[in-house]
Amino acid sequence: MSKKVEEIGNQYTSERNRKRKRQQKKMKIVRRRVTVFGGLLLAIIVILSIMLVFQKHSNDQMAVERKQKEEQFQKKQDEEIALKEELNNLNDKDYIEKVARDDYYLSNKGEVIFKLPDKDDKSSKSKSSDDNSK
Q1: Would 111 be classed as within a structural domain?
Q2: Lowest-pLDDT range, 6-15, 22-31, 80-89?
Q3: Are 34 and 28 in contact (CB under 8 A)?
Q4: Signal peptide position in this chain (predicted)?
Q5: Residue 88: phi, psi to the nearest 5?
Q6: Considering its fold, how many domains does the chain have in total?
Q7: Which helix (H) or strand (E) holds 65?
């Protein structure tokens, strides 16, 4: 049972139809504006998210680089301390005398230096004497 409804052509209905059409046009405009502004907002959020990810990645790389630089700095500081200690030792007369005696076999007047064989020297001498005896 379908009913066919006809509109009455009076001033009230025509005014109401115009208002409804204006309202529909306004709603279309509002929907378009909401869509455009929503799209812009979404685009801004996406761009900011991408920037955030790149910044995080960059910060992580910089943190790794900073840690490496700090380790290098610490090594350089340790090396500097060792060099200063060596410099102080080289300015010490007793240390220079000890190095001269131990490494270069220098002696004072009237001293005689005897070099004792090491454990490695004994084993090599015994091997060479075994080779000579054959």
Answers
A1: no
A2: 6-15
A3: no
A4: none
A5: -65, -40
A6: 1
A7: helix 11-90
Query: What is the average per-residue pLDDT within 41-67?
Result: 98
Instruction: Read off the pLDDT band of 134 (50, 70, 90).
Output: very low
Window from 1-5, 61-65, 98-102 with minimum mean pLDDT: 1-5
Maximum Cα interatomic distance, the chain, rounded to a whole number of Å: 142
Structure tokens at 109: 């007047």
Whether 18 maps to a domain, the answer reads yes
Q: Identify the CA nearest to 17 among candidates 29, 7, 4, 5.
A: 7
- Please report how many Cα atoms fall inside a 13 Å half-sphere around the Cα of residue 61, on the Cβ side: 6
Within a domain: residue 124? no
Both tokens assigned to 7: 């509109």
The reply to whether 110 falls in a domain is: no
Q: What angle do CA 52, 54, 56 make, to 5 degrees?
A: 65
